[in-house]
Request: fold
Amino acid sequence: MIPYGRHHIDEDDIEAVSEVLRSGVLTQGPAVEAFERAIAEYVGVKYAVAVSSGTAGLHLAALVAGITEGKKLITSPITFVASANSVLYAGGDPLFADIDPETINLSADKLNIALINDSEIRGIMPVHFSGLTCDMVAIAEAANKYDAIVIEDAAHALGAKYADGSKVGSCKNSLMTVFSFHPVKAIAAGEGGMVTTNDENIYRRLLRLRSHGINKLNDPYEFPQQSVENSIPSPWYYEMQELGFNYRITDIQCALALSQLKKIEKFISRRRDLVRRYNSAFSEFENCRPAQESECERSAHHLYVLRIDFNKIKLSRSELMLELRVRKIITQVHYIPLPAQPYYRKLGFNPEDYMCSQEYYSQALSIPLYYDLSDEQQGYVIQTLRELLV
Reply:
């Protein structure tokens, strides 16, 4: 079978994990800090906090940004459920603004309209869909104008670049950026996430919340008199200063991710080559087109999504996916618009209010794209679609 996405593991990755297993330190050890430093250096940011998943990172980011009860945060309808769910976890209220149909990212124009119409929006979570960066300059300008905090959902976008050439995660136009290291992402840690920021106070609070709300680094004690005996510091003493979580990541995962990070430019380069070939091939097709045709050189290319006019071909989307599976090609749909999910419908959202998202969803199909996809396999995918999209 040819999956729509998969990770790449080599002997260097296996050896990196084996070294941790031999070291005797499996969690809260040096590999975690080394991975944090490596990501911070790679994206060009001051601070990075590794967590157990991208979802955990989004949750902590929403909390630290103050998106609590009565506070609203707006995000894209076309994203995984974790983006909006993280707002609910923090006690806030998620909202949606429709996408730009050419980029499948949050529309800056629709965002501005939403901000004008609702003065209570205090957070914006742009999602860099498939690794293509949002218009962060326009989003930051809107955020500054309406006193909102920006949290970038970059689960798809490690290695992607903004228009000025800087890397996603540098937080040039946001307070925080959140990455994911799920196996189908740019680099794999099994599971895992990272929050980056240039704000030291945000960094310190992320560290506390990641581990049960316990003070870290040189955070001052609230009850310093309890931390000493006979003027000698008590080596066991710590304070839980707020309600936190067990969102720690292990050294095993971070060792794998560190090894993977060394290969990220190679991974992205291969994905970019595959995308160029897909784009060239599908330019000749009548009934489909790439969902994201612009700024190919800046994207991290997490996914390759086709927009197919199912009204003009002989197969429905379900029939097409099943026929492709028979021919050993696995496809997927990214994503059902969040306002269409039963849970969000119960909260009062209507998917028909986001027509660009609905139209995109009616046409979307993600086809295979990953580092180990061979030229021969890609050619087979293209030829099979040429036969079926008629």
